[in-house]
Amino acid sequence: MNAKQRYLAAARRQPVDRIPTHFRASKVLTRRLMAHFGIDPAGGLGSAEALLARLGADFWASGSRADAWATFLPAYRGPQPRPPHITDASYFYTLGIPVISSGADELGFEYPAFVDPPLAHAERASDIPAGYLTQRLVHFDFDHMVNRQAGAPQAAGEPLSYEALAARDDHVICIGILNNLFMICSYLRGMEQFLMDLALDLALAERLIGEVGEFCLEFNRRYLAAFGARAELYGAWDDVAGQDGMMFSPALFRRYFQPLYREMVAEVKRYGLIFSWHCCGSVHQALPLMIDAGIDVLDVVQTSARDMDLEIMYRRYGQDVCLSGGIDVQKLLVSGTPAQVRAEVRRAHDLWGMRGGLVLGPSHEAAPETPLNNILAIYEPV
Prior knowledge:
It is built from 13 helices and 14 strands. The chain is an alpha/beta fold.
């Protein structure tokens, strides 16, 4: 099996020749690894492939998208943010959600921060105009797809063509953006305020969810119509859970969000694509609902969250969904030893064997301070 065949088989819970692996790390840690191997970080895809080869990893992942280097998004032709606001790789800025740079910390780690939610001052459902988001669809050019993804360290002006990537046998063509139902509501309203709406003002929450759902479903219908036949995997993410469980009532998720996801998944499956859904935290209250909605892959299996141990996840869900991630970035990779990392990898192999249903790798972006030997231990032959 090549890397692509191995990943697609695992995602479909079919037998593999070995468990596929992915690499995912902060830019700081990535630079450290490239320096360790003597790889020029400015080499674009060539540098990435050299790093994967030295590690022994199959793919460079970016959350719900299995292949950061082969992800395609529709071109955006609408208004650009004015400083200090910036664009963000998840396209939230295209919805009028202000984004600023957090600034680099002492380790050089930087991330976007979402500020000034545009609907924060709405006091009643009628304050949210009909078509608030769908009017923005005119700004997206679905006839032109852009090779762009935050998880891949492409240099500016270095897009990769679909034809070049599709002609190879080592890339999974990925799509999926602006499908984050809960998170878009939270960024438009403000996280705290939207959670209060769900608890105290369901009329307003319903109106917002309806507007967001209408936009997300129509956006992705057009996206799929334009490019779905050429893709292989559709990625979505929605961080509805924290370390100990969901951030709001599972009953509300079932009532408002699951039906929208069910419709989204059904549309994706019309094109024969794998549906990968990312959610951090302890997902036990949400995952059965998403499995019922039809997802194929859960990313990221954050094992340091409550009851997210690999064996628990295997026993509860191993027959129903492929799990991606599983090597803890919060504690194990930062504070553990290479021997402990190897033991966790061995445990994963003992649980899943070669039956498919697991893609092994860091449970999120490995942190800047992660010891290099711990990363290397993930990919050592078992």
